[in-house]
Amino acid sequence: MQFPQEIKALFQLAIPLTLIQVAEGMVNFVDTLMMGWLGTSALAAGGLGAIIFWTSLALFTGLLEMTGALAAEAYGAKDYARVGIINAQALWLSLGVSIPAIALFWNLEGILLQLGQEPQIVTQTVGYLRAISWGLPAALGLFTFKEITSALMEPRLLTLLMIVSIPLNVFLNDALMYGRWGLPQLGLTGIGWSSALVFWLMFGIATLSLSQRRDLRQWQLFRSVRRLNPPVFREIVHLGWPLSVDYGTEYGALTAAALLMGTWSTDLLAAHRIVMTTTELLLMVSWGMSYATAMRTAHKIGEGRPDTAKRIMDVSLILNCVLACVLAIPLWLLPKLIVGFYLDTQLVENQATLQAAVTIFRIGVIFQIFQGFRLISLGTLQGLRDTHLLATIDVVAHWLIGLGGGYWLGQWLHWQGVGLWWGLVLGQVFAAVLLGGRVQQLLRQRIQGRFP
To answer: Does residue 1 register a pLDDT over 60?
Structure first.
């Protein structure tokens, strides 16, 4: 296959994966947007709950992340049976990690109070978490299906389902927030139940569709689902736990940042949530490119063509940089307009949140660009099965430099939210540089035949 065709294949995978990532980000975005309709207090409480839930989800998806790369390598090597075994073991792992997580969500009230959060915020946060926690197994199952179908170059079903989930989520949010059509009026808790219901509905449709599609029967996706395969199960965990640490340290640092914002003021917590939700939504493009790069890299490694894998990575890096810069423009030029989507900026009680968010948005531009660089390197490392250095780099980047530096700037220099966000930016710069260097080193070794 010629290189232009390789680039075309990358885009054919990157576009639907980007749409999936955008749709996933839109669920979080829409939830946060509708939390704001309930007031600043609900936005702060729901924002804290959403950060905790999505951080936990990221932690577990990291553990499952190598499912796609392993299946993609099997796809490149035309090992049909192995793909189905990988899918089955990932589903078992999804269920196994969900059970203790749900138990934890139900018992967070005392912990949040000990961390200095306001009691009225904690009550609402816990209600939201207890509701959305029931959707965790389905959310992880959907993630597994996304990984597997991406490896097989067939992500369209998951793309369609995720797009359809957005209006459905809006409809159920509205119905359960305000008690429409005879349903109970649950406020913020209703948003949690809405997300849980949508997760399960999408998972059920995906399971039925994938099991019935004739063009996927050769991959035997559900043939091994009734039994554990310890070697494959251990392989997923062995390669996935560094990514779990990677995502856990990143989102854990962001959760800690939100908790720190909450100790300074509710207005800063609300502003932090607005900026973080918006930047995360725009970063879905980078995530989509990262997943596509991981799959195509693994395909080429499975075929024994590391030189093509390097060229794919280089093109992904350039394209993602351009897209990240373009998407950062509204954050820099229109921050007040963006805040207006979340809160009524004319109300006096929202002015402190507005001013804080406008200032932080400018820093968020730099955060988004360097995060994009980091994500492409992350995807390539997955395709190369090199994940263990990530844990060390990201602990330093997110906690020591990001949160530690941000705490020092915010607390001791009294910069508060601005200082915290500058710390987060410095952490991303550090990680982007080190991971990028690691990728180039490994690809050169593969091409020269000096790497197994």
So the answer is: no
Cβ(356)–Cβ(416) under 8 Å?
A: no
What's the CA gap between 282 and 28, in Å, rounded?
12
Residue that has been written with the tokens 């596509």 in this structure: 292
Sign for the pseudo-dihedral over CA of 382, 53, 162, 277 = negative
Q: Are 296 and 9 in contact (CB under 8 A)?
A: yes
**Biggest alpha carbon–alpha carbon distance for the chain:** 67
Q: Where is pLDDT greater, at 63 or 140?
A: 140
For residue 396, give the amino acid letter: V
CB 9, CB 149: distance < 8 Å: no
Q: What is the pLDDT of residues 223-239, one digit of tens each?
A: 777 778 888 888 888 88
Alpha-carbon dihedral 336, 20, 162, 273, rounded to 10 degrees: -30
pTM value is 0.72
Mean pLDDT of the chain: 81
Angle of helix 156-178 versus helix 136-151 axis, rounded to 10? 160
Residue whose C-alpha is closest to residue 313's, from 446, 429, 430, 425: 446
Q: Using only C-alpha atoms, what is the Rg of the chain? A: 21
